[in-house]
Structure formats: C-alpha cells, structure tokens
Amino acid sequence: MIFSGFVRFIRLIISNKYLILAMARREIAARYVGSSLGFVWTFIKPLIMIGVFWFVFSVGFKSKPMNDIPFVVWLTAGMAPWFCFSEIIMDSTVAVVGNANLVKKTIFPAQILPIVKILSGIITHGVFILILVVLCLLQGVPLRIQSIQFIYYLVCFVLLSLGISWLVAALNVFLRDVGQMVAVLLQVGFWATPIFWDINMMSPTVQKLLKLNPFYYIVQGYRNSFLDFVPFWYYPMYTIYFWCITLVTLLVGAYVFRRLKPQFADVL
Amino acid sequence: MEKENSREIAIHIENLTKIYRLYNRPIDRIKETFIPNGKSYHHPFNALTDVTLDIKKGETIGIVGRNGSGKSTLLQLICGIVQPTKGVVNVNGRISALLELGAGFNPEFSGLQNVYLNGTILGLKKHEIDDRLENILAFADIGDFIDQPVKSYSSGMFIRLAFAVAISIDPEILIVDEALSVGDEAFQRKCFAHINSIQERGGTILFVTHSASSVIELCSRALLLDHGELLLAGSPKQIISHYQKMIYAPEDRVEQLKDEYRELPDRFNYFRGESEITEEKNSVVWADNSSRNGTTLDDLNVLEDDFDPNMIPVSTVSYETKGATIKNARISNNKGKQVNILRAGETYYFCYHVKFDVCAQNIKFGMLIKTLKGVEISGCSASSEDCSIDEINIGDAFQVKFPFRCFLNPGVYFLNAGILGIIAGTEEYLDRQLDIGMFRVDEKDEKHSTALVNLVGPPKINLELFPD
User: Fold this and answer.
1) Cα B264 to Cα B258: distance, rounded to the nearest angstrom
2) Is the CB of residue A102 less than 8 Å away from at least one CB of chain B?
C-alpha cells in the first residue's frame, strides 16, 4: 500500500511537471514582484546574514578557525542547508492556506504544493551554495570533486522536509496556530543544532543527545562534503538512523495530508 | 446497449449527498479525524441531499435556485473539488471550470503571466498556450492591459480574461458558476456565441445563474434546487416558471409549494406541454389530442377555423395570489369572438377578468407575449391611474382588454397575465399567471418575413443605371 501510494505520487509529479515548474517560478517571482532589485535580493539576504555572523563571531568574539578552516566558511557550510530547510518548512505552512483559491475553486492536486515550495527553496539554495563556493575560493579552502557529495545530503534534507511540509501544510489549514508553532520551533531548532557552534565543545553524553536531531546529520554532512571531504558511509549507523527518521516523517506527513485533504475545500 | 449509453453520458450522478461538518472549535475536527474513539464533535449541515441525475453529452444545463440551495456545492462536487459524503459522481470528459472570478489568478502578476500560469493549471504545455495565445487575447479583448498587473483590472476585464483562458482548452465539459453576469452585454453575447459553438461541437455545459432569460435562451434542460434538494428537472421554461413562482411566493407558502412540486409526475423529466407542441408538424397531433380529451374527430370538422378548443396550455403556472385573481383569459377578435388561431396583420384583444380581495391603489395591469421557448416578445403594463381608476375596493372586478396587432410570424405563442400592486412598500404581483393562454399564427402566403416579428416589408427593387 505504501509502495503503490509512492508510485502514484511519483506519477502525479511527472504528469504535473509543467505545472510544478511554472508554480515554482511564480513562487520566486512573486517574492520580488514589484521590487526593482528583483532576484538580486536572493543574494543580498544570505550575504547580509553571513556577514553579520562573521562579524559577531570572527571580529567580535574572535572565534578561532575550526581545524584550520576559516570560521566564516565553516559557518556558511552549516548554515546553507538550514537556511533552505527552514525556508521550505516556513513557506509550507501557508502552502495550502495561501492557495485557498486554487484548492477551493479549481481542479487542482493540492499535494504538489509542498513540492512547489521545495523546488523554489532549492533554487535559493543554489545561490547559497554559490556564495559558499566563492567564500571557499576567497579563503583558500580547496574545492575537490568530493564536494559533489553535498547533493546526497541535499536529497536527504529535501525528503525530510517534504514529510514535515505535508504535515504542517495540512494541519495549518485547520489550526492556524501551527504556523506560529512552526516559527518558534524553527527558532529553537536553529540554536539547538550545532550550526554556528561546535558540537565538540559539549560533553560526550550531550553530544550523543544532540546527534538525535536528524538535522545535525545534514549540517555535519555539508561540512564533510565541502570542508573535510569525508564520505557519508563513514557514519553507517548515523545514516541508518537518519533514514529511519526521514522515512517515518514521510509516512506520517503523507498519511496526515491524505486524511485531511478531502476536507480542505470545506474549511478554506 | 448499456455500454453505448454510458458513452453518451457526460456526468452521472447517483444519490449524491454532501453533508458539511461544522465544528465549534477547529481542534475538534483534527480530533475527530485522527482519534478513533467514535466520539462525534460536529453538527451536520446538509448542503446537498440525495441528488440523482444523468447529464448527456451535448446538453446545456442551467441550474437555478435560491441562495444556499446547493448549486455551487453541486458544481464543486462535479469538479471533484469537494468530496461527496455519500453517492457517486462519474465524469466522462475534460472539465474546465469557472467557479469563481479568476480563481488561480495572482493579482500581482500581469495578465499575460497569469494566462500562462492558468493555462498550465488547466493542463496545457507552454507551446500549446503559445498556439492559443492569439485567440485568448482576441477573446478577452483587453488591449494593452494584458501587460499590467491583474490587480489593476476591472472585474469585467478580469472575467473576460478568465473566461478566455477557461475556454481555450476546448473543454468537453464547461462549468460556469454565476461568473458571466459580471461582463458587459457585448461580452455576454460573445460568451453565448461561444457557448453555442461548444454546443454544436457536442460539448456539455453546466451553469448556475440567476438570469431567467439566459437559462431559457441557452439551455436544453434546467434544474431547480432548493435546500440541497433537486426539486425539478426539465424544460428550461417550465423550471424557470416554477422557480419564479417559488421565489415570489410568501414565505409561509414555500414549503407547501415544494410539496406540490414533489408530487408532480415526471418531476425529474418535466417537459409538460412542450414536447407535444414542438413535435407538432401538422394538425394531426391536435386531432390526436382531441380524441384523448373526449372530442371526436367529427367535432373537429365542424370547428371554426380560427378556434381550436383543444389548444389549451398545459404549462400554466399560477403564482400565489396576494389579493387579486385573474380568470377567464382569452383572445378575441374584433367581433368579440374567442379565437386562438390568429391571422397576421389583424387586430385582436387579449382579455381577462380580475377580481380583488384587497383595497389597493397604484395597480398595474400587465400582459406579455412569449415564444414557445419563453423568449419575451412584447408586453404591456398599464397603471390603474392611466385607466382612470382611482381606488380599488374589496370585491371590485374588472375586465381588462389589451388590443394588439398580430405582427407575429407563424408559430406558437404563449401569454402571461399579471396584476402588480404595492404591498408594504414594495411592488409585488397580486396575481400572476404564466402561460395562461396560447395561440398559433398560421402559415400565410407571403413568406418574405423571417425571425419572430413581421416589421419589414418586401424590398422595392429598381433597376438603376449608373452613368460612367
């Protein structure tokens, strides 16, 4: 049953590929419609954020380089996936609510809405990766072919976020509190995930606990791809753990979305 | 046989029921969906109850009903946007739906961008939209506004563009919910013309409207819904008459009326009167009719050739009386003799008696001539003051006589009669009778006149020699 549902979903994506692409394009265009800088804002936002963190930690707190890697590069590598992840989740809370017109008044497959959010998120993510690469070059961190591994981790967190997206998108239709809750949780998540602080500062017990957070797998993975060049199969247990969590999230998300979808039009 | 049948059916609806669940708190809905302890938190609201209906390919269906009667819910169910609580909807063909003005349009984007996005939502690829773009723009006819953000559009421009996109996919089934009423007359004409072309192509159209005339002019069948119940289905003219009777009836009579409608034989296939007349090619049908009514063929031979006693409308609909009663409606010629087969060019009188049970002032006496399909041709509404009647007392009775020249071309026509008066400050019908009379205009020798009314004579043609 799970398998056939999966096949159906893949078919749906393929048959709606033009629609998904067009909507993702619109999603990005809608962000900047009417602004004169337009797409440039996609660069400005992460640049400012990295700039602020770099200033606070490198200039202010005088953080030392991490294993000979300049702090700003190390930070950016960890922030890139989180930035994209939180954007996808945040946008997904309004994926159905924000398209009430489409869901209620047209013949429209609502389950592709989170996909649209993910796709548009990935495009901004591309910009972030570009900034990361430029930073690496500027700071003298070598780029190697192993860096390509980040695509594996990208797939990892896209699937993780798809499950969560379905869940929050569907629940937010009925309980608008979900949107607020997600915003708070993402704030907490940002500080609780070792993104701008080193997990090695903590005691081994705390480290174990922190690793339960599946997103640390992604942050560590991005750093391993771009900075340390460690392949993911060096952590077999952690990889299995991550995929179990992701699979469960996907199943729960898909189940909740499917159960609630028939009622969307009744409530919106 | 059955297979062939199912291929002809565009939409099959069986026992369709939609019950909305209303909750006091939104969390209750989540609880009920996911916690299987059988506890129920909702109040049911019946939006649509047990509707069974088959719509054949090529039909144009008009749906009428008071507000909240379930018209839009029915359309949403057919589109598959809303899930039925019970029952089945089977749709056979590609649907294009216009349920709300420009649903799926993003106000910040230009018209052109929205055309592409909407086309994609409707399932078109980019090059397919490219191919259709010229037609879409021509149909929408909004000129340079196409490059402006949609938020700057007037609602008329909006609907023009939305309609243009919706029909561009050549839908097999077109579903329109009250949208057309926004456009101006020229645009409505254009839409109607397009709807006609969809009809000719064998497409199926469903639309909800409050405009009686568009139902009568466009539809092959009409549905009357009330409180989620399919009350009547049948000939547009009949359904509209019954619908209007219902909306003009006093509140406390509506339930009783609905019961009467429920008792009607063939109420889901209600074509009373019409089918016999439309199929009438010669007087044989009338003869058939007469023998059924107990008149023998012998009687027919002695009939005067301008009166057919069997030509009595069976589609008469009387509104609830509110103080006046119309009786004894008939047409007479200038010798005072009752007729119903009229000769072109002669003068006739449409007469009725009216008796009042209330005191009234500012009464209007009205009549209307309509075609078989219900298209209104000519009417008259004369106030009591014009007829130098100052006041009307209880028990007063009048004979009303409208003279008219018969400029009508051959065909069958119907008559309405009505008395308008002011009740509690608003003008209402004290009595109204639809299809109270009918008459036929016979084929005549000169055949130059076309369409409904003979206003134009044959042309004078002179040979003219133009000098070089």
Assistant:
1) 10
2) yes
Please check whether residue B173 touches A, CB under 8 A: no
What pTM, to 2 d.p., does this model score? 0.70
CA–CA distance from A124 to each of A29, A41, A75, A87, A155 (Å)? 12, 10, 18, 9, 15
Helix axes B126-140, B111-121, angle to 10 degrees: 130
pLDDT at B371 over 70: yes
Q: Which two tokens stand for residue A11?
A: 């078919």
Half-sphere exposure (Cβ direction) of A121: Cα atoms closer than 13 Å: 28
Provide the pLDDT confidence category of residue A85 given band limits of 50, 70 and 90.
Answer: very high
Residues of B in contact with A262 (CB under 8 A): 83
Query: What is the structure's pLDDT at B101?
Result: 66
List of domains in chain B: 3-93+172-269 (3.40.50.300), 312-441 (2.70.50.60)
For A95-102, what is the mean pLDDT? 85
- Chain A: residue nearest B47 by CA? A266
CA distance A36 to chain B (A): 14
Contact B120 A22 (CB under 8 A): yes
Provide mean pLDDT across the span B316-340: 87
pLDDT score of B286: 37
**Contact at CB, B21 and A34, closer than 8 angstroms:** no
Q: At what angle do helices A177-192 and A150-174 cross, to 10 degrees?
A: 150
What does DSSP assign to residue A69? B
Of residues A253 and B3, the one with the higher pLDDT is: A253
Which of A25, A27, A101 to substitute to test the interface with B, most B CBs within 10 Å? A101
- Residue A156 has a pLDDT of 92
